[in-house]
Write the structure tokens for this entry.
Amino acid sequence: MVDSSSERCAWGLSTATPPDAMVPQQARLCIDGHAGPCLARALEGADATFMDWTLSSLPYRLIPGARVLMLGLGGGLGVREALRHGAGEIRVAEPNGQVLELLREDFGSYTGNLLERPEVTVQVRDGRDLARRSPGAFQIVVWRLPGAGGVSFAGAESIHESFEATLDAFSEYLAALEDDGILVVETTLEPTRRALRVLTTGAEACRRMAGAAGCADRIAFIRSELVGLLVIGQRPLPATWIEQIRSFAGERQFTVSYLPELTETEIQADIADEEAYFDQFEQLSEFSDDEQGGTAALHDPYFDCLETLLRGEADERVAYLDAYPFDLRPVGDDRPYFDAFLKAGSAAFLRETSPDPEKWVRRMPSDLYAEPLLWVTLGQALALGLLILLIPLLLRRAGVRRRGAGRTVVYFMMLGL
């Protein structure tokens, strides 16, 4: 637990947040040595108004008084935000019982006994299991894409199993919704490829659900500078929701990257506003062309991705995914490595786009380290294994006399130690 005046958490906070709605000091929870979520401190009055300016408050404006399923408790901020915006019933699936115990017992007074509220029910169980056993039970299902917990080196996310982020999982989340419900997925936008895989997974899960009806009118993607919010409806998004999303994004200076009937003019206007904002800090304001995947891009890779996957023909979808320098295809339960992005051609792309092509391996993004490291480790193990097996044969051919079977037995018993 870290309690410091510098700890202030608000995922997807608007850059237009007024000064009197700034995020108050909070305590942060660390899990497996990694910085985790902030605890939902009991807030009153002006201290709680920052939650009106977060990206994640949007779903509760679309469906007031909703029955909500939250996949993961975190530090409880999601629960507090849902309550502030009028959620009628909140069920939380948290697989880590220690987190629940911490918030209920050790920090119950700090959170204002948040989890004892009558609207809130928390169960120690897997979120997918609860969704699978509750078909058609909720109006909003909320899931935040996590990092890899319990891993020991930078880049290990790519070899960390994420069964909650597979295509099969997304399909189960959608099945837990009522006919007018929405699945809400929060994701970081760094790196871009991670957010794009969220979009490809969501688009394919929606296509499986909708069938021939298509999904172009069921999906919205809104983002801040660092966080994106994917909304997938069981049915086409109503016109009133679309106007609410536009109004919500405009008031809070969020960018609408995808909506049914979104025009190129709107996209270019959002890009111009974004560039003007970043120009204040003399930072790169425009998306890099490196990860456009060969599409005739509008410099918003999220729009290009969803427009191609939702409105393109089958061959166009395949061409987009093939041309992209990293693997964006959804992962299944048989290969649940959501952060494994390398494919044939990725190394050449990384070398060509590296600031120092001669030392491109050293400049490779840290989240991509683990996959090549696994292959290197496998190569070393094979080489050493062959060496250990061949040494006795080479010695025998050289005329070295055997002094009994006992030493041979001991030798092979020592292998692998």
Notes: The two ends are 38 Å apart (CA to CA).
